[in-house]
């Protein structure tokens, strides 16, 4: 695993995350009552101080009532304002030393305000879901909210027994007492705070395909009335999983789940080992199948291989966009070359002021970033040829599995698989703003 920690505060969200320490593990025990939308929780956070003694540190947490804070069992001094829980331990933590933080909180969860609307915990008509990218995680638990700080998680969620709880990871236990049920999930793979997904609702659970020995279990959690359409729309996901494992390398987690809510979502949202779709993404005609491929691909690119900070988001979205094109090509649809040509035509008349390597906070979810990011991968494929390109792609996922990456790491990685210089090509596509010419014709995906 190659980890490239960002050295300082995230340039796009300097109030989120604290680079002076890193978290090893979160253990969250939550109690949620959907009717009054009431959440109470206890977090046990195992962390390690950085290179300097830790006289204070910050956790991100929205406006909840704080019941208790402890550092290594002792009461610290703390303040909680503006979504930042600033903690000053009774005794400074030595550089490089492990320490444990305990936090109790309660209140009515609501999304965190952002330039893209509310993010994080969202109360539904009958349940709740969490979609945190990029800064919504503090809407429901205290965290070091920076994508480079990846940790393992155990989530224990208690709700009324009528509701199912779905989280990314492996379900360890489900225990019913009186009118409530406690669900305990374990996500052992390193996980960024924004990728901790959760859905609470009245769902039916189905198995997608037969994973067989050594296969990846895939489950769908859907409202009963959408089951028929879902079964058609997601029927090819097991085949998609096989294709992506061939092209990208082994699936990086234990299981994969998809949740469809009864309500509409603007776009599907990935979490670690879990993707969330709205009812509008289910039509019985595979109308959103490219999005099914996009979210599945994020499990490799974005989730297992994560970005060091948000400047590099094209490494998430460009790779997932190109995965859409690869799935189309491999499943009998339009080829990647045809889809690249369509993307190039789409981008040509648009303003050419977007720099992939640093799009700026306002443009980090711009459609142009997705399309141009896909074109970068296609340009690299055309330059390397299929054999070297897919070797490069598999190597990227395997070398950085569980770690974090930067744009510079990607360009260096590509150069190792090329017999010709690629610096000018990558400079134009990634660091320039003018749209380069359409990459040449590419052959079929590697088989």
Write up this protein.
The chain has 447 residues and is an alpha+beta fold. The protein has 3 domains: 17-192, Sandwich (Immunoglobulin-like); 203-300, Zincin-like, CATH 3.30.2010; 306-431, Neutral Protease, domain 2 (Orthogonal Bundle), CATH 1.10.390. The protein is 24% helix and 29% strand. It has helices at 227-233, 237-248, 289-297, 314-330, 336-347, 367-384, 386-399, 407-415, 423-431; strands at 21-33, 38-49, 57-60, 65-71, 77-81, 84-88, 98-107, 120-124, 127-131, 151-160, 164-167, 170-177, 180-191, 198-201, 204-207, 218-222, 256-260, 269-271, 274-277, 306-307, 404-405. It has a 7-stranded mixed beta sheet, with no helix packed on it. A 5-stranded mixed beta sheet has the order 15-16-17-19-18, with no helix packed on it. The longest helix is centred in the last third of the chain and has 18 residues, at 367-384. 47% of the residues are buried. Residues 1-6 and 442-447 have low confidence and may be disordered. Keywords: Hydrolase, Metal-binding, Metalloprotease, Protease, Zinc. Residues 238-429 form the Peptidase M1 membrane alanine aminopeptidase domain. This is Aminopeptidase N.
